[in-house]
Structure to design on (828 residues):
């Protein structure tokens, strides 16, 4: 039998593995527990690729001869080769225990623990190895790799330098050293080290990849891409290489190509958090909110203690209108870092959108305490304070803005409209916002001029549902002359299933619901349809996706109706207005070219239904006999100077009340307190909630006089009042938003109700309240003239707007620069 074992060993040495195995099996049939036969058979089977059987033999042999440390080491090697890292580590531990400290055994145990992702154990094993034999370069390199992964960069650098001191041509150590030097910001040294590695092995993919990453850091994008693409060609599965290609392409503004590379990186290595985060950021910038959320959720799952990732996820959720999820993500970031001002700010945004205004204010104030000079925080505080009618604090924020030019440059332009009637301020804020939007966005190319028989007009908005904008435009789209125009509706907002949305959808030649698409995908859709004129109905209002227009999907882009002011944007060619809205003295503060319509700029829907259900004042807590002043504008439009006038009117008209919309309970509380402080019984302020359109229109008929606001007038609410026959008094300011009601009143031949200062506004309002006959006459004129007054002559308005579109298209087709012009009607 001894001769059989000796012969088997000879056959093993000759690599005649099958014969060797047969000889061992012969022995084991007689003596199943023959340790030497099991050892040799196990070795032969491993050599034949029969790993499970070979490992089983070695396990049995080791159990029979535990004193054989070489056998345990061989078993450990076999287990490691087959991916059984934890079992391999245990085999090496037993070998060390039996034979005493050994550099090689500790090194092998380090390899096994490293493969098992037991970083702490592997670091200890390599340190034990090096304490016995400091000359093992591979151990220094592997230890450095683990320290790098643990964020212990200086220790890692020392390890790689120790490896290179023993093997100066050790390319792996050079590559790893270059990587860590890059991570700690020693870019020049990193470049030198990585270039040295490539002189030794020119096609070493990891060195090429790390050099490319360092070149991206240095802003040398073309050189970086050349090296990174070589690395990927050599090693196509290098996820990090695809990630850095994506970084370089993003830096060059090539977001579409970058997305391809980043997606491939995370496909290859889902655990590559940097790529997941960058892909999430790029998708967020593209407006692909759902996909961005998915990426960032994976990144935060892998790194739940990283506040920056949680904030990025929260932003994606906020933009995707998943508001509570966003608030939760920002809260998690705040819990990790109590000094993270932006996390407080962004949580405030989510809370404000959830109508939790006091909580939002608390977060904004915390953000302001941490970053006093942050424009977004100042803007957000101003927004919340105005919504709550907290005028003392909103006045303080406005004063801060005016004392600090950099704050004014960063304010939300729409928020500024609510408190400022200074057109130069509005232009400055809008230009700053537009500059931010165009950053990193490459337009589709030079303006094109299409040769369509019918002009293709696309109306772009989020608000094609039960929204003020839709209540105005619902009839317009269907009135366009289909022999001359093709009409497209492009909606990136919700479908509420309402009748108004159904009307709009039905009145378009094509209605595109693009809410799930990215900004670039939406722009590409418009480009593919060769839109001649793209009309934006949103501007800088809430949830706008102005980035679509920055991509320039149409040769002519127009701002209309949704945003009451200049957008200050190079990607907007024209603004639709009228002579009253934009007087000559204020024209310099409009960045766009202005098209002046003959009557009012505002379109209206002649089919707005007024509920036929009889309503009584008592249904709304109104006095049956007293005079009812009303204002159904949003509460944020109510300012202290206007409210002072209202309180004087209540004092001057005994038994009168002021009927207001209830936007939120905090504005109600503050307005009633303000009335009390001015000597007016707070019960004379009567609030009503929101209701359906037809009932809302019907309740106007219970009021006597609509009192407008300043610096933001009534817009749709003014049309509602005039449509139902309710007289309205306005004070016209300087800005677009402050002159809308005046434009509408001129278009119903009631210019005498347009005043130019608050003193006159008060006098006219008081005079009307004391002259019921005059009020009845005005109401009768409005009701009788609904079919003929210019404001409600929607077919005539449509012809004027079409003349505007024809004019701006002709200017473009003639190769001329956009310019102001006035639409004139042909003589009848």
């Amino acid at each position: 039998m001894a001769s059989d074992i000796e012969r088997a060993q000879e056959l093993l040495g000759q690599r005649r593995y099958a014969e060797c195995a047969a000889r061992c099996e012969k022995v084991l049939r007689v003596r199943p527990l023959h340790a030497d036969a099991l050892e040799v058979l196990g070795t032969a089977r491993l050599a034949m690729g029969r790993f499970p059987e070979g490992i089983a033999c070695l396990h049995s042999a080791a159990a029979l001869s535990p004193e054989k440390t070489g056998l345990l080491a061989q078993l450990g090697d076999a287990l490691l080769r087959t991916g059984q890292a934890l079992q391999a580590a245990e085999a090496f531990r037993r070998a060390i225990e039996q034979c005493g400290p050994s550099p090689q055994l500790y090194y092998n145990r380090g390899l096994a623990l490293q493969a098992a992702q037991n970083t702490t154990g592997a670091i200890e094993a390599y340190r034990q190895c090096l304490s016995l034999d400091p000359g093992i370069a591979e151990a220094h390199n592997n230890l450095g790799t683990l320290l790098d992964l643990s964020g212990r960069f200086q220790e890692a650098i020392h390890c790689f330098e120790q490896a290179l001191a023993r093997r100066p041509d050790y390319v792996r150590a050079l590559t790893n050293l270059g990587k860590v030097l890059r991570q700690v910001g020693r870019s020049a040294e990193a470049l030198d080290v990585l270039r040295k590695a490539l002189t030794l092995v020119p096609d070493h993919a990891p060195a090429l990849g790390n050099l490319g990453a360092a070149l991206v850091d240095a802003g040398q994008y073309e050189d970086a891409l050349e090296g990174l693409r070589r690395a990927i060609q050599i090693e196509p599965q290098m996820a990090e290489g695809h990630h850095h290609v994506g970084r370089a392409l993003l830096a060059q503004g090539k977001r579409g190509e970058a997305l391809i590379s980043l997606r491939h990186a995370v496909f290859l290595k889902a655990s590559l958090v940097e790529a997941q985060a960058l892909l999430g950021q790029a998708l967020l910038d593209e407006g692909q909110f759902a996909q961005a959320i998915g990426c960032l959720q994976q990144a935060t799952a892998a790194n739940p203690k990283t506040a920056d990732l949680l904030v990025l996820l929260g932003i994606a959720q906020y933009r995707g209108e998943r508001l509570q999820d966003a608030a939760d993500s920002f809260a998690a970031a705040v819990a990790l870092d109590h000094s993270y001002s932006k996390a407080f700010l962004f949580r405030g945004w989510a809370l404000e959108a959830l109508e939790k205004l006091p909580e939002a204010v608390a977060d904004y104030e915390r953000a302001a305490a941490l970053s006093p000079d942050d424009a977004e925080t100042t803007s957000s505080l101003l927004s919340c304070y105005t919504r709550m009618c907290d005028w003392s604090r909103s006045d303080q924020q406005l004063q801060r803005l005016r004392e600090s030019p950099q704050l004014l440059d960063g304010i939300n332009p729409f928020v500024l409209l609510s408190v400022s009637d200074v057109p130069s301020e509005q232009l400055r804020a809008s230009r700053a916002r537009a500059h931010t939007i165009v950053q990193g966005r490459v337009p589709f190319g030079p303006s094109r001029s299409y040769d369509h028989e019918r002009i293709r007009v696309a109306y772009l908005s989020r608000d094609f549902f039960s929204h003020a904008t839709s209540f105005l435009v619902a009839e317009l789209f269907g009135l366009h002359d289909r022999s001359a125009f093709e009409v497209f509706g492009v909606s990136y907002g919700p479908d509420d299933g309402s009748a108004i949305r159904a009307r709009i959808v039905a009145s378009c030649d094509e209605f595109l619901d693009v809410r799930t698409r990215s900004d670039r995908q939406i722009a590409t859709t418009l480009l593919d349809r060769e839109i001649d004129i793209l009309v934006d109905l949103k501007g800088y209002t809430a949830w706008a996706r102005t980035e679509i227009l920055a991509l320039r999907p149409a040769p002519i882009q127009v701002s209309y109706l949704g945003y009451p002011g200049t957008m200050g944007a190079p990607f907007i060619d024209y603004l639709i207005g009228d002579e009253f809205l934009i007087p000559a003295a204020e024209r310099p503060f409009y960045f766009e070219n202005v098209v002046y319509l003959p009557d009012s700029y505002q379109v209206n829907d002649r089919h707005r239904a007024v509920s036929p259900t009889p309503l009584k004042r008592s249904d709304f807590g109104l006095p049956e006999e007293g005079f009812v002043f009303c204002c159904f504008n949003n509460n944020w439009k109510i300012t202290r100077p206007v409210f002072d006038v209202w309180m004087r009117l209540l004092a001057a008209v005994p038994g009168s009340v002021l009927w207001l919309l209830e936007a939120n309970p905090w504005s109600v509380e503050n307005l009633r307190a303000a009335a009390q402080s001015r000597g007016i019984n707070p019960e004379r302020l009567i609030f009503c909630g929101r209701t359906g359109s037809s009932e809302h229109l019907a309740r106007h008929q219970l009021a006597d006089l609509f009192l407008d606001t300043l610096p933001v007038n009534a817009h749709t609410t003014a049309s509602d009042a005039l449509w139902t026959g309710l007289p309205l008094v306005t004070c016209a300011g300087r800005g677009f938003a402050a002159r809308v009601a005046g434009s509408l009143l001129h278009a119903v031949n009631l210019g005498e109700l347009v005043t130019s200062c608050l003193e006159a506004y008060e006098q006219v309002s008081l005079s009307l309240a004391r002259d019921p006959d005059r009020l009845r006459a005005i109401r009768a004129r409005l009701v009788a003239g609904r079919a003929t007054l210019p404001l409600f002559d929607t077919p005539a308005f449509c012809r004027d707007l079409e003349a505007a579109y024809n004019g701006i298209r002709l200017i473009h087709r003639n190769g001329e620069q956009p310019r102001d012009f006035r639409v004139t009607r042909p003589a009848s």
The chain has 40 helices and 14 strands. Residues 794-813 form the longest helix (20 residues). The mean pLDDT is 92. Residues 2-181 form a domain with the Serine Threonine Protein Phosphatase 5, Tetratricopeptide repeat fold (CATH 1.25.40.10).
